[in-house]
Amino acid sequence: MACENNLVVKQIIDLYSQISNLESLKPSKNVDTLFGQLVSTCLPTDTDIDVTKIHDEKVKDMRSHLIKLCGEAEGYLEQYFSTIIGSFEDNPLNHLHIFPYYNNYLKLSKLEFDLLAQHTSHVPTKIAFIGSGPMPLTSIVLAKFHLPNTTIHNFDIDSQANTLASNLVSRDPDLSERMIFHTTDVLNAKEGLDQYDVVFLAALVGMDKESKVKAIEHLEKHMAPGAVLMLRSAHGLRAFLYPIVDSCDLKGFEVLSIFHPSDDVVNSVVIARKLGGSSEAGSSQIERCVIMPCNCSKIHAIMNSRGMKKSMIEEFSAIE
Ligand SMILES: C[S@@+](CC[C@H](N)C(=O)[O-])C[C@H]1O[C@@H](n2cnc3c(N)ncnc32)[C@H](O)[C@@H]1O
């Protein structure tokens, strides 16, 4: 059945028309309800919906506009809660649980940390997070719970986002030292990008394929050979909320793995390594993988050891 006739897609189109008619995307009962319904409509993973196979131009245009609306609303939501949490007299980091999606970030950051640990042999000393936002929860969770000796440089195009974010960590004796903020468009960040062991690229940096690839190409040009790039993508219905990063978008990188969660962590995670690193073994595999066509991935459906429902992990290796 054509995807656009799918009942769930029809529900998404209906929610899109309500959201796109909203006066404002700033948090309110109505905005929260609509986006809550949208997220829960897009969460199920037991569908065979592949947005890349949608041919109806209207649905394709709807999807690209909906992704932008979601990004705008996410920015307002972070701004709103960062202002509230930052206004506490004591350490604002004691109140992060007030943010409605805090638990999702705890799970997403743990997932990203686990993938990082699986593919790197040493603890990163310096990480860059591109698109950190007014609520830099990924950086905060990584620094607080997983990487106690790592410095995280947060880059955001929006100076107000950085003002709110640095206020959040300013009264924390540890993170006020290890969280640094830079206001710049990623495309203008050149010097120094080669000093990071790991670079994260937020889902909202590059809201369409063209700008996402532009950001990736820029990072490929300035990152150190062998450094790791962590990106966020989307799979199935969740690709109505966030842009997809394909292995083909990552020229100059070895794609190590793509993880599609099946719980309420919305984003898929992509981990890649910039070519030209030192490990011999890796380089031979790197060449094979980069030269191989995009479908060089083998999809393994695995029962996740943590008892989650079947998740999807794509390990990249040369086709036998
Ligand atoms: C809302 S945050 C989401 C990230 C989330 N706070 C986290 O911890 O994973 C995404 C941020 O990306 C920033 N952004 C978008 N495009 C960018 C660009 N080209 N360069 C730098 N930052 C960008 C936006 O200003 C926004 O604050």
Short description, anyone?
With 320 residues, this protein is an alpha/beta fold.
Counting DSSP E segments of at least 2 residues, the number of strands comes to 9
- Give me the side-by-side strand order of the main sheet: 3-2-1-4-5-7-6-9-8
The largest pleated sheet is described as: 9 strands, mixed
Low-pLDDT runs of 5+ residues are 280-309
What is the distance, rounded to the nearest whole angstrom, between the alpha carbons of the first and last residues?
A: 33 Å
Overall geometry:
globular
User: Which molecules are bound in this entry?
Assistant: S-adenosylmethionine
Q: How many DSSP H or I helices?
A: 9
Mean pLDDT: 89
Q: What structural class do helix, strand and pairing data support?
A: alpha/beta
- Nearest-angstrom radius of gyration? 19 Å
Query: What proportion strand?
Result: 15-25%
Q: H/E element string?
A: HHHHEHEHHEEHEEEHEE
Share of residues in helices: 25-40%
Enzyme class: transferase
Catalytic activity: 3 S-adenosyl-L-methionine = nicotianamine + 3 S-methyl-5'-thioadenosine + 3 H(+)
GO biological process, one term: pollen development
Organism: Brassica carinata
